[in-house]
Amino acid sequence: MLGTTASNLSRRTELYVKETLVGKKSVNLDCAKINGQTYSITRGFVRVMSLEDEWYADVSDPGSVVKALASSSLKPDIFTFWQRLPDVTPKYSYHIEWESIAAMPVTTYDHWFNKQISSRTRNLIRKGKQEGLDAFETQYDDAFVRGMTEIFNETPVRQGRHFWHYGKDFETIKKQFSRFLFREQLISAYYRDEMVGLIMLGNAGNYAITGQIISKISHRDKSTNNVLIAKAVEVCAREELPYLVYLFWTDDSLSEFKRRCGFKEIKVPRYFVPLTTKGRIALKLGFHRGWKQAIPKRLRKPLKMLRTYWYDLKKRST
User: Rounded to two decimals, what is the model's pTM?
Assistant: First the structure.
């Protein structure tokens, strides 16, 4: 494919604009379909293109994508892609930066419960179940969506920031979260007759991924998320998925929760290919990951604390 002519690449490239929902707002994304795969471009000072479903698919031929973009009218400043688990040895000569993800090797449920998690986590799972908390696989029906809507609208702030699903109604949530049911296994957590937590567990082929995991703060004492993770591990073991992935590994309290549940930091290579002068300058100055990542690490924690304090003030004033 690397020897494909520019005209053939052009015929394999389809440019279009797609409407999507970000928070409560409808926005348009510039997209391209190249070699049968869909890519989208983030808007901003530096336009970055990536595979739309990069957690679920690998870029089939990065070299041909770069050639197609060079000859198309839709030229982003930077093209980025990564290698998914378990393929973590770099294969390409483009600029590399290492991405930290939270991943848990899965063999059997018993091995995870007895060998991979802390005694504290085991006790929390036992305690939650003894108090009547039950997690089970379920269907995407109106009862599930109603429970999800209640959980989303419990509080406007989660983990110190505005929760972008807060305020959405039943119909909006039902439509928004029905898009990827073909690859998701749903898990609900119930306390008595009340849905208090959920996981939308995505099957990415090489691993399962917690596309959405959330629970009611009012039932935090029942360790709902621990019980949900336990059920997700059970599903992974049954489906013979070798890893359970909980998105990124970050330096915060959530990563401490992940560690206690058996997740580890695993680094995977991410590649950045500048396609314009602006892209080359952004890569050199460190702005290719956005302005948030350009903030020095020593300032990130104080700024997060300030943001949490600000949202707490707003919450108390309403």
Answer: 0.85
